[in-house]
């Protein structure tokens, strides 16, 4: 029996996933969460094989929670189920510890296939993500600049691009305001940008935020 946790801020999505997964005798949903913080509590209290997690959620997002979830449950699989296309987030997230990435427009049967693959301790790569990984290995200097950011820099970048202040970010990521400012300076240098509005424009242009 594969024990699953569902993390999504929409109750109707969680309900639909729970009902669909219940149709498979080898899958059992052990609990649900509505954001990254609740996901951490869920993992702390339940022994899960695979966590099925949305990316964009209010409060603590899936991206914010990923490192802590991976630290708390290193053997648990984490399957990201996101509304964003694979080319925008998949590589960064897999690099940061996600076991697989699916767009919410995928066939429901693919979610089950991914869960079963990840429960075996393997990564689940769609053909599109595998192609992206292959392209990344082949290219060097022409990679999008946001792919050169560290995990923390990428988190801070997305939050700044959404208009969050250094104070907001420091609370969400449990960092000091000074540390957030250091990350901001570093990522600005790496990306060759000079203002928060530049970050927002870049993120919108590359469809990293809505």
TrEMBL record:
It comes from the Bacteria. Keywords: DNA-binding, Phosphoprotein. The keyword NADP does not apply. It holds the Pfam family GerE. Residues 142-207 form the HTH luxR-type domain. The keyword Phosphoprotein applies. SUPFAM superfamilies: C-terminal effector domain of the bipartite response regulators, CheY-like. Coiled coil: none annotated. InterPro entries: CheY-like_superfamily, NreC/VraR/RcsB-like_REC, Sig_transdc_resp-reg_C-effctor, Sig_transdc_resp-reg_receiver, Tscrpt_reg_LuxR_C, WalR-like. The modification 4-aspartylphosphate is found at residue 54. Residues 3-119 form the Response regulatory domain. This is Response regulator transcription factor RqpR.
């Amino acid at each position: 029996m594969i024990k699953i946790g569902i993390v999504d801020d929409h109750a109707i999505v969680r309900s639909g996933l729970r009902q669909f997964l219940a149709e498979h005798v080898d899958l059992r949903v052990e609990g649900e969460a509505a954001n990254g913080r609740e996901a951490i509590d869920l993992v702390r209290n339940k022994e899960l094989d695979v966590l099925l997690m949305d990316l964009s959620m209010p409060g603590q997002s899936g991206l914010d929670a990923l490192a802590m979830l991976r630290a708390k449950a290193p053997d648990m699989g984490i399957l990201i189920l996101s509304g964003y296309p694979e080319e925008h987030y998949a590589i960064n997230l897999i690099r940061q510890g996600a076991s697989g990435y699916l767009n919410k427009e995928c066939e429901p049967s693919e979610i089950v296939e991914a869960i079963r693959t990840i429960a075996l301790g393997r990564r689940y790569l769609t053909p599109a993500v595998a192609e992206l990984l292959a392209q990344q290995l082949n290219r060097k200097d022409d990679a999008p600049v946001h792919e050169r950011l560290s995990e923390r820099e990428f988190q801070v970048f997305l939050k700044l691009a959404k208009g969050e202040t250094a104070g907001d970010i420091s609370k969400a990521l449990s960092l000091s305001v000074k540390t957030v400012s250091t990350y901001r300076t570093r990522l600005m240098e790496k990306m060759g940008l000079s203002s928060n509005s530049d970050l927002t424009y870049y993120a919108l242009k590359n469809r990293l935020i809505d």
